[in-house]
Write a structure and sequence with these properties.
Blueprint lengths: L1 E9 L4 H5 L12 E13 L4 E8 L25 H4 L12 E11 L2 E8 L3 H4 L2 H4 L12 E8 L4 H4 L4 E10 L3 E2 L7 E2 L2 E13 L9 E11 L9 E10 L9 E10 L9 E14 L2 E11 L9 E10 L2
Antiparallel strand pairs: 1-2, 2-3, 3-4, 4-5, 5-6, 6-7, 7-10, 8-9, 10-11, 11-12, 12-13, 13-14, 14-15, 15-16
Length: 317
Amino acid sequence: MSLYVGGSWGTGDNLSGSLHNLFPVNTLYAPSYYLGELYLQQTLLKNNLTMVVGRLAAANTFATLPVLTNYVNYGINPNPYPLGGNDISFFGPPTGTEWGAQASYNVTPVVQISAGLFNNNLDSANGQNHGTYWTLQQGNKGALVVAEVSYFPHQIANDQGKQGEYTLGLITDNNSFPTFPDGQTKSGGYTGVFAMGQEVVYQPDGPGTPRGLTVWGSWAYNSKPLISILPLFCGAGASYQGLIRARKNDVVSLGWIYGRVSNLVPGTSAEQVLEVNYRWLYRPYLAVTPDFQYIWKPGGSSIPGVAVAGVQLSVTF
């Protein structure tokens, strides 16, 4: 059994707040300090069963792939954005977490099933009281439920999805949500599905070596555009580690995502984003990532596209 406690402190401005786009251009924007996940974890059955209970975030476990951490745009990294954009209870900290329980079980060396049950208090999801708002009911009802089955062609224990992973999942929440276009009334919950996968398709130095090309794709659908801002999402991309032979740990990545705005929001269609970046691993503890993004129809509206350039600095202690 183990105990986990996380926290964060952030500062700065939100560029997406000025661009009025749906897919945030930066992976994390959460000024102020927040308590993160806080949970107990128990592994059983020769580490094939993992159970977790406490203050959790569905996004930290479900609908994610290892390759997605190579990107800066929050629409790609770490999950298909509409899963949280349509239901903030899914998002991870910062800012918020929810009371919940989840479990993962390795059915075979290559097949894993996972499921989680989470509270859906919106004040808690929004990080009220800096992540210490622990009330179960505050006008909310029901629960958020997420389940998925994943296939690891190169085995779970040995690979953890880095060489290949394919996931099919279900998400549902029976809370009440404001309806479009004005949000003056509320409607019952929704059901959605998602699918995603990644695979290493080329390794110039042979199997088991780090250099190579990984391709990925993701898709999500929500059955209720009456309450879901992005009922349809899809994305695809590729990452190449060691494109320059002398820089075998550097990664160049290309990604594209598409989000169809609910047809109940007047004057909108879809937002698309193209991201290109290069992660330069200067030292094992220091990575610098120049990043370029282009956004078509920010917010799904018919306004000119926007180009965004930036640099991400990552330090690992």
